[in-house]
Specification:
Elements (H helix, E strand, L loop, with lengths): L1 H17 L7 E3 L13 E4 L13 H4 L3 E2 L13 E4 L2 E3 L19
Parallel strand pairs: 1-5
Antiparallel strand pairs: 2-3, 2-4
Length: 108
């Protein structure tokens, strides 16, 4: 489950880099390590787990994302949540990054 979440986040970051989305881009530079991004993410609750990564390219799905307004957690939910973060690299930024999600609660 955690691997699926990590893969989903990486793929979402890739999509965010490749498209122009509503939220202003977070500019990645050589000094960006350790930055808190809670105030820059957007969330989408996937009621019934109907979406997959291919659906994220659909503008209708993209329009369903809502600003997280600084929330670091959505609480406990039986539904998956998609996280969107728009990134833009500066010329001095490293080409590879890791995104750390501080904690994830899994319901069984």
């Amino acid at each position: 489950m955690l691997q699926r979440l990590a893969l989903s986040i990486v793929l979402m970051l890739s999509l965010a880099l490749a498209s122009s989305l509503a939220q202003a881009a977070v500019e990645l530079s050589a000094a960006s390590s350790g930055a808190s991004l809670n105030d820059r993410i957007e969330l989408l609750e996937d009621v019934g787990a109907q979406l997959d990564i291919a659906d994220m390219a659909d503008p209708a799905v993209q329009s369903r994302f809502k600003p997280a307004n600084g929330r670091a957690s959505v609480g406990q939910s039986r539904n998956p949540w998609w996280i969107k973060l728009t990134l833009q690299r500066t010329s001095d930024a490293p080409s590879q990054w890791w995104l750390e999600v501080g904690s994830v609660t899994q319901l069984d």
